Amino acid sequence: MSEETANDTQDLGEKIVKVLKTIYDPEIPVDIYELGLIYDVFVNEENEVKILMTLTSPNCPVAETLPVEVEEKVKSLDVVKDTEVEITFDPPWTQDLMSEEAKLELGLL
């Protein structure tokens, strides 16, 4: 991977994070990135994106819609060729995965 490609990939990664920070869990007034629901974002040289994420619980009421929203919003970035969202519960989500900002917002600090 050339340095230019690496920079493009990093820039795209930052754009993806910005998009993820616009998506909120409907039950918690914090975006899914700060909640720690995004485990990893992979971007290849063809600008295909794979997002590994979890939900607050397997019975989460938005289990059907949240991954679709993530996929559609990331795919809406002009430079993204394709997006795949994979849900995992390994490791299961806990409040420890939340950012300090999210914990502060929810009065957990």
TrEMBL record:
Highest taxon listed in the record's lineage: Bacteria
Looking at the record, the residues that make up the MIP18 family-like domain are: 14-87
Supply the InterPro entries for this chain: Fe-S_Maturation_MIP18, FSCA_dom_sf, MIP18-like
Q: Name the Pfam families for this protein.
A: FeS_assembly_P
Gene3D superfamilies attached to this UniProt entry: Fe-S cluster assembly (FSCA)
Q: What is this protein called?
A: FeS assembly SUF system protein
> What's the source species for this entry?
Kriegella aquimaris
